[in-house]
């Protein structure tokens, strides 16, 4: 089930709302009605959170790093960036862009609050405009400052990791930043027991985020050492362009493959995906041929890092990538599948 949905895009970067965010806003609307000041406050705050995340994404795009999307949650936003920058200097620039945007927004709102003297907005939203802007300014400054704490999963943790990575191994730098993040999560949770239950929730979120960030980063870094040839699987679902969709489905079922390779006289033409075939009405599958459907022309080399194959699978939304040799790029010698990625992941864990 998909738990987030797209609400638009900026500069080609999709922006999605998580369903829990929508539920929070609906609840807040009914709780604050007819005095909707808190509802408007939270709504605007999340617009500024989106700008915060967009700043990360635009810097990433500047360095040719692909951004899949931005997702807004009740606890903040997340920029889904395809890869960790190889250069620490790029990572800290990406990380610091978000807090810098929050500080600039806070400064602009503070300035507007000093100029605007209107005491109320239109009914039914009754707010003191100057105080409203100053409160928004304060929260944005706090958001920027909180994110600069040198611990995962905050932006400051990435800056700290990048600075350490200039002098240490990347995996060691990640472990130190994650340790501080987990320690901070424990401290905040303990303080929350005495002061505020929300601090407990924030502390748990920080602890889990730091743990997951460390695990995924270290495994991904190690995964770069695993090559396609280490986890290649034999060819399974292969057909000619003249194969009917009905026959292709039977081949795919027998091979337990979601996508099917298209070959002519042993030469790779590309793949046709399961999703394209199932779009066709079952009554027409016996008459339509594979060559009448869109063919994705993708492949990876035996000596490529498995991460490259995984990026292709993620980008193209496919489950199979043909593997070829550089000397014979038209001849498929095997495939990489989700099972291959699982094998590579386990191999990477043992290499750590």
Report what the structure shows.
The chain has 352 residues and is of the alpha/beta class. It has 3 domains: 1-148, no CATH class; 153-223; 228-351, CBS-domain, CATH 3.10.580.10. Helices cover 55% and strands 17% of the residues. The protein has 12 helices and 10 strands. The protein has a 4-stranded mixed beta sheet with strand order 1-2-3-4. The protein has a 3-stranded mixed beta sheet with strand order 5-6-7. A 3-stranded mixed beta sheet has the order 8-9-10. α1 runs antiparallel to α2 (37-62) and α5 packs antiparallel against α6 (170-194). The chain is globular, with a radius of gyration of 25 Å. It starts with a strand and ends with a helix. The relative contact order is 0.08. Residues 120-127 have low confidence and may be disordered.
Number of helices: 12
**Strand-residue fraction?**
15-25%
In what order do the strands lie side by side in the largest sheet?
1-2-3-4
SSE-based structural type: alpha/beta
Q: Please give the radius of gyration in angstroms.
A: 25 Å
**How many structural domains?**
3
Please state the average pLDDT score: 80
Give the H and E element order.
EEHHEEHHHHHHEHEEHEHEEH
Helix coverage percent: 55-70%
Q: What characterizes the major β-sheet?
A: 4 strands, mixed
The span between the termini is 33 Å
Low-confidence stretches: 120-127
Q: In one word, what is the shape?
A: globular
What is the β-strand count? Answer: 10
């Amino acid at each position: 089930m998909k738990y987030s949905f797209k609400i638009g895009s900026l500069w080609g970067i999709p922006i999605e709302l998580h369903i829990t965010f929508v539920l929070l806003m609906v609840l807040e609307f009914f709780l604050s009605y007819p005095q909707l000041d808190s509802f408007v406050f939270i709504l605007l705050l999340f617009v500024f959170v989106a700008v915060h995340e967009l700043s990360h994404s635009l810097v990433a795009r500047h360095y040719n790093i692909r951004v899949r999307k931005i997702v807004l949650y009740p606890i903040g936003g997340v920029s889904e960036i395809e890869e960790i920058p190889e250069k620490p200097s790029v990572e800290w620039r990406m990380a610091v862009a978000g807090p810098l945007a929050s500080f600039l927004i806070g400064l602009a709102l503070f300035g507007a609050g000093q100029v605007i003297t209107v005491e109320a907005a239109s009914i039914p939203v009754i707010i003191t405009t100057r105080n409203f802007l100053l409160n928004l300014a304060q929260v944005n400054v706090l958001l920027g400052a909180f994110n600069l704490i040198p611990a995962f999963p905050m932006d400051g943790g990435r800056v700290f990791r990048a600075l350490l990575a200039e002098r240490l191994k990347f995996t060691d730098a990640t472990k130190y930043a994650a340790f501080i993040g987990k320690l901070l999560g424990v401290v905040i949770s303990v303080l929350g027991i005495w002061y505020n239950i929300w601090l407990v929730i924030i502390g748990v979120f920080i602890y889990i985020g730091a743990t997951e960030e460390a695990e995924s980063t270290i495994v991904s870094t190690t995964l770069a050492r695993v090559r396609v040839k280490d986890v290649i699987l034999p060819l399974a679902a292969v057909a000619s362009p003249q194969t009917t969709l009905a026959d292709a489905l039977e081949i795919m079922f027998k091979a337990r493959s979601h996508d099917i390779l298209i070959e002519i006289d042993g030469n790779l033409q590309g793949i046709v995906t399961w999703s394209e075939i199932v779009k066709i009405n079952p009554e027409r599958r016996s008459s339509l041929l594979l060559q009448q459907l869109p063919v994705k022309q993708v492949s990876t080399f035996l000596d490529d890092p498995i991460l490259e194959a995984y990026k292709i699978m993620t980008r193209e939304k496919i489950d199979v990538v043909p593997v070829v040799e550089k000397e014979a790029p038209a001849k498929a010698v095997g495939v990489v599948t989700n099972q291959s990625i699982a094998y590579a992941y386990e191999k990477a864990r043992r290499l750590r």
